Amino acid sequence: MPAESDIKCANANIRTSTVWTIVLGFAADPLMRWSWPDAGQYLRSMPRFVNASGGPAFEHGTAYVTEGIRAAALWLPPGVQQDESALDEIMALSLNPAITEDMALLRQEMAEHHPSEPHWYLPLIAADPNWVGQGLGTLLMKYALQRCDEQGITAYLESSNPDHIPFYQSHGFEVIGKIQHGSSPPLTPMLRAAK
Question: In which domain, by residue range, is 122 found?
Fold first, then answer.
């Protein structure tokens, strides 16, 4: 079983490898593949999406990886935002026009579900499919949530895969809604109060 000591902050030297671990981990994700059903389009767009939605974690020392970059979690500290203009550009350039409006509505509702008080936000957590089931996600989650608890700050995420909701619930997250528009798969906002 991996240990907490196997977790480190992803710096600029391993940023690309960290992003690709997340890309691999989301390769079968319902929402991501609804967004980019073509494999080539997914592989072109998803790295840019990861950097726009979770990239600030690298600058703030809150991009965490396990040994061998087998799993990664990009946490945004309170007050740190995703790069919305980069996300807008990615969506405009890469989405099928038939889902553009649904995606805009999803993103609008995601913003409405974010807590108004200071919170830690987890836009992305994933493991290389070769390493799923090894406890790496649990290790990453416990590591970050310990910081949330020490600071007494809420944690927030949206689950883009219904199969992962029990995992988040096992770490204290509670479902606070459901986001779905048109043909999109459901997105589940979840909140965890500090312990």
Answer: 2-146
Sheet order of strands, 174-175 included: 8-9, 63-65, 71-76, 119-127, 154-159, 188-192, 174-175
Burial of 15 per CB tally in 10 Å (0-12, 13-18, 19+):
middle
The answer as to whether 162 is a domain residue is no
Of 81, 17, 83, the closest CA to residue 52 belongs to: 83
Q: Examine residue 70 and state whether it is found in any structural domain, yes or no.
A: yes
Query: Does residue 195 form part of some domain?
Result: no
Distance CA 101, CA 182 (A): 9
Q: Is residue 182 part of a domain?
A: no
Number of domains the chain is built from: 1
Helix (H, G, I), strand (E, B) or coil at 33: helix
Name which of 64, 83, 178, 173 is nearest 124 in CA terms. 64
Residue 64 pLDDT = 97
Token duo for residue 152: 């007494």
Predicted local confidence at residue 132, as pLDDT: 92
pLDDT at 12: 87
Count of C-beta atoms within a 10 Å radius of residue 163:
9
pTM of the complete model: 0.95
**Which residues of the chain, if any, have pLDDT below 70?**
1-5
